[in-house]
Design goal:
mainly alpha, 93% helix, coiled coil
Amino acid sequence: EVQKLNQQLEEKNGEIQQMINQPPYEKEREILRLQKSLAEREKAQATSDVLCRSLTDETHQLQRKLASTAEMCQHLAKCLEEKQRKEKGNSDDQIATESSNQVVLDNETSLQTLICKLQDENKMLKQKVAHV
C-alpha cells in the first residue's frame, strides 16, 4: 500500500512538473478551463440548492395540508359518533339518520382518498429530495 501511495505521489509530482514546464499560454488555458469548470459546478450546486429548498417548502406545505385534512377527518368522525349516539334513542328519525350518515361517510371517504393522494405525493416529493 505504501508503494502504491508512493507511485501515486510520483504521478502527481510528474503532473506538477509537466504544468511547470508548460509554456505560459498553456498554463493560462488550463487555468481558464479549471475556472470554467468551477463556475459550472457552482451553477449546478446553486440550481440544486434552489430545487432542494423548493421541494422542502412544498413538502412542508403538503404536510400541513395532510395534518389539517386528518384533523378534519377526526372532527367529522366525532360528529358522526355524536349523531349516532343521539339518534340511537330516536327510532322515528332513522331514515334521516341514514341519509346524514351516508353524507358523512361520503365526506369521510373523499377525505380518506385525499389523504392517500397527499401521502403518495409526499412520498414522491421525499424521493425527489433524496435524489437531488
